[in-house]
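BUG-483 | component: ligand-complex export | severity: low

The export step for protoporphyrin IX containing FE jobs runs without errors, but we want the raw record kept on the ticket for reference. Input record follows.
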Amino acid sequence: MALALNSTLRWMAASDSEKAALADIQGNILDGHGRKATRHVLLRFGEDAAASRAFIRELAPHITSTLEQLTAAKAFREHGVSGGPFLGLLLSSSGYASLEAAQKAPEPDDGGAFVQGMLARAELLADPDAGELDEPYRQGIDAMVLIGGNPDAADSWESTETENAETKVLNILQGRAYVVAVEVGRAIFKDNGTDELGINKIEGIEHFGYVDGRSQPLMLDELVERERDESDGISVWDPTFPLGQVLVPDPGSPSAETGFGSFFVFRKLEQDVAGFKAREEEMGEDEALGGMGELMGATLVGRFEDGTPVVLQRDDGGDNPVMNNFDYAGDPDGLRCPLHAHIRKTNPRGDSVRQFGVSLEEERSHIMARRGMTYGRRDRVVDPTDKPNGGVGLMFMSFHNNLATGFEFTQARWANNPGFVRDGTGRDPVIGQRGSAAAEDLTVRTTWGKRDAATATASFGEFVRHKGGEYFFAPAISTLRAL
Ligand code: HEM
């Protein structure tokens, strides 16, 4: 095997065989593609499997490999040269079947997650019934072409680059699959003031207004070193993960040496910004809950809007660069960062080690590479007084070596589970889904950081609605060429 999945990789010093693997693995897996505009073309294949396979073979040479992506990103950093559009192709289990290529599909040990698809996992995930999802997602999706590109201008909603790339894909498609939906993504930003040099700090956010995409597993040595040297460091929370955190051998590839892929989650999550912000503000002003103001929102997410971790500070402003070198060892009972906070539920950074005695390695095995993109039209630098109650949200995307121990574990066993990390913790207020069970209140500590703080309970609604999605695999490019 050309790649050692149990370690990180220094890609700039890769051997020829490692380079061959990086040229075969699709981009966006080991590092985000970084484009600020996306189009997601969701497909179902028809009766003629041979024609659909021919379409994929013809598209394969246009798919962006990891090596191309990393090389282009380096050129962009050094010379400002844009890498052009990004193209990825994801296949679901039903997609492999419709292509009559089931023998090439991965056969993961994941309790049936990949083979069954996301719809069949609704109960486990506490997702809404199929009838409540956006129409295209009421049945399984066979494939997704992921297109990334630059917007026409920094403040423009339009992206001719991604539209042209989509036209190119549709020209190759020539009716050999049905387009069931095209989702359009656009990164949004927050003006985080100016730093000490007077430079304007613009950070990527999600629609509730919080800096997003900061904490990621890093699998390339170059990224780990940049984190170590150019941010707040890696001495407390080590973001270093082996390639095998996301990569698995792709059995469909003609080359066992270079053929690797990754399991991919796509979920369209609509955000009721008006509802979330109103409740957040109401709770912040409620004297019975301590009259915490901004701090209230930070305790729900685990970070202030500017990204400052609430376990480190009771005020925002620690955002240069946004801090990520922390864990909860000094706050085991959630006096500073509540146990229910979104980032603590989805990455407990040692909480389950203390609580259940599992190894840190076991806890870290659930960590995912998030590649989400916001959707829905708002000003690029968001006007905080504009609060839509629908039509905007997050196209949540993530890569895993296993869907059951990665995404499903995080959503079902951690976020949705009021008993994690211990009884009385409550659900994740951002993404926790209760299914049919009754709502449970959050326990709010009315003073930050004080062991003897009074506690009060507060109900919190569900302001993120699942609108549909699918489980996919990102095959090696050699697999696509040989279909
Ligand atoms: C981190 C928001 C959905 C898992 C974050 C952060 C924000 C955020 C603001 C902090 C930024 C960072 O630490 O990088 C949201 C919103 C969502 C959403 C608004 C839905 C609309 C999800 C889902 C999952 C998830 C569905 C997985 C089931 C994570 C993880 C982290 C994170 C693992 C990093 C935690 C850490 O390493 O400390 N999210 N998120 N998020 N989110 Fe979400």
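Assignee comment: Attached the raw record above. The first strand starts at residue 37 and ends at 45.
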